[in-house]
Amino acid sequence: MSNSAKLVDDTPAAQPAPDAVRPLDPRPAWPGEASQARGRSVRLAGGRSRSRRLGQSARAWPVSVALACLVVAVIITWAAFPELLAPHSAWDPSGASLEPPSAKHLFGTDLIGRDQLARVIFGARESLLGAALAVTLGLVAGITLGTIAGAAGGVADQIVMRAVDVLLAVPALLAALVVVVLLGRGTTNAALAVGIGSVAGFARLVRAEVVKVRHSEYVEAAYSSGGSFATVLIRHILPNSLRPVLALLPLQLGGAILALATLGFLGYGVQPPDPEWGMMIADGRNLLGSAPWITAFPGLLLAATVLATHRLSRSLGGRS
Length: 320
Hints:
The chain is 70% helix and 0% strand. With 320 residues, the protein is mainly alpha-helical.
């Protein structure tokens, strides 16, 4: 009994059965399969990270930016299709004189009986087209002068920047009034006057960006590889210098709309009977007590448009 018990006690304890081992894949592995698998995993991880970033950016998108986009979209739609969206004629009377806002005339009527909503919609076209012309003039001239000053340097830089300093020393409204007086009244002349005043801001910004990009390593490498001055300027310096300009465009557009409205308020912009926001505000300034809607609605839309463009400019510039 003792010997059999001893034999049983000396027997090692049973070990758990090892996991079943899968047979090896008889197909030979190709050299590129490992790298392909790594590439697939990297792409999957990159896709997940991009999706995560997009979701975070969508959640972090401020409501103010959405409202600004909505306001700008409405103004652009009005300017593009005023004939389709205006409920009445902007030039002919369609109701009683100084009729308050109602279902028929949402913004009321003016002293002559013209529908205010129709005049506001058609006035959006005048304001937006004039501001677009002014900003285009300032953008083209500013990019040209800023590029010459930043890329050439030396005497050219000094001459251009001193001219820009002179433009900045003169108040923009005063300069616009001088130009309008010399050229005459009208939308085009007012837009040219406002555009001349916006050249300095674009020129200074482009010059600063060109100087910064010009000393970058990839620009030096492009010169070392045999690239000419014009080639490096067009292919490397300018494309990398214009990103801040995109953020400045909405800001300048809002400033141009406000400046054109100011000239229209003073009588130097659009001439009657064509509608324009600044002139409409001027028409109702003596009727604030009896018919405040004549001034209130164009003024509110002007303020909303300028604030919306400023908000879009901050968003494009990376500021919350």
